[in-house]
TrEMBL record:
Residues 24-251 form the Xylose isomerase-like TIM barrel domain. This is Xylose isomerase. Keywords: Isomerase. One of its GO terms (molecular function) is isomerase activity. It comes from Paractinoplanes ferrugineus. PANTHER family: HYDROXYPYRUVATE ISOMERASE (PTHR12110), XYLOSE ISOMERASE (PTHR12110:SF52). It comes from the Bacteria.
Length: 267
């Protein structure tokens, strides 16, 4: 990997504080992090921004906006996404990643319609703020709980329908690697990819949500997949996002150095 292409997603260090993660990243020669909103919940995000600046770190993206479907009213979802955009500006994050929301009751068509409405409503605020909204397709096993957008083709349809420069794609290797139509989706993705997340698929998978592997520990051909993503013209940072309690139990400095070395060998 070229210098400056690697970012550590805060979910990889879920049990560590922001300051500890920042120190570990700098020690590993990594100068970007991807943040999660719950990590500064109840605090002024400006404090987090100041902490990161103090360590010379930049924010590659903010997770997460979205959840336009589910149990909360559409107005509440709109207001929360507006806040997320404002927080992204404070943190200096150019990207807000969207986890779009589940297919409630299994109604995929209704969920897609609600997701489209929700994104369309917040796009003007994102454009005015200079924040890119990145739609992240999830693995189909999350369709009923987290996102009805489970293929790159679905995400492309949203971009086609809404045709807004503030709307883009977030591609997570863990969520998309299985798709037989993945290459067709990548062939259409030139200029559309804003964020790339990396995790491996462990066999057996110990947990649906928090059973992801560090790069090289699973079965995804990550080097090949990242090369194919790069072929679309994507030049942004690659964020390693590994939700796994075994990873969280390790010292954060050890994990960040390990991630750096694994990615250097991989790609």
């Amino acid at each position: 990997m070229h210098s400056g292409q690697l970012s550590i997603n805060q979910a990889t260090a879920e049990t560590s504080g922001t300051d500890d993660l920042a120190v570990a990243c700098r020690a590993a020669g990594i100068d970007q992090v991807s943040l999660w909103r719950h990590k500064y919940l109840g605090q002024d995000p400006a404090r987090t921004a100041a902490t990161l600046r103090g360590h010379g770190l930049r924010v590659s993206s903010l997770c997460r906006g979205g959840f336009f479907t589910g149990t909360r009213p559409e107005q509440e979802a709109y207001e929360d996404n507006r806040r997320a955009i404002e927080e992204a500006v404070i943190l200096g994050s150019p990207i807000l990643v969207l986890v779009c929301g589940p297919a409630v009751g299994g109604d995929i068509a209704a969920a897609e319609s609600a997701i489209r409405r929700g994104i369309e409503r917040i796009l003007p605020a994102a454009g005015d703020a200079g924040v890119t909204l990145a739609v992240e397709p999830f693995h189909p096993m999350f369709l009923a709980e987290r996102s009805a957008v489970v293929t790159l083709a679905q995400a492309h349809r949203l971009l086609d329908d809404l045709t807004d420069p503030a709307l883009a794609l977030a591609i997570d290797t863990y969520h998309v690697w299985w798709d037989p139509a993945l290459q067709a989706g990548l062939d259409r993705a030139a200029g559309r990819i804003a964020a790339v997340h990396v995790a491996d698929w462990l066999v057996p998978t110990p947990s649906m949500l928090a059973g992801r592997g560090l790069p090289g520990d699973g079965v995804i051909p990550l080097g090949d997949l990242l090369t194919r993503i790069e072929a679309t013209g994507f030049t942004g940072p690659v964020e390693v996002e590994v939700l796994n309690p075994d990873v969280w139990a390790r010292p954060v400095a050890e994990v960040t150095a390990d991630v750096r070395d694994r990615m250097a060998r991989l790609w």
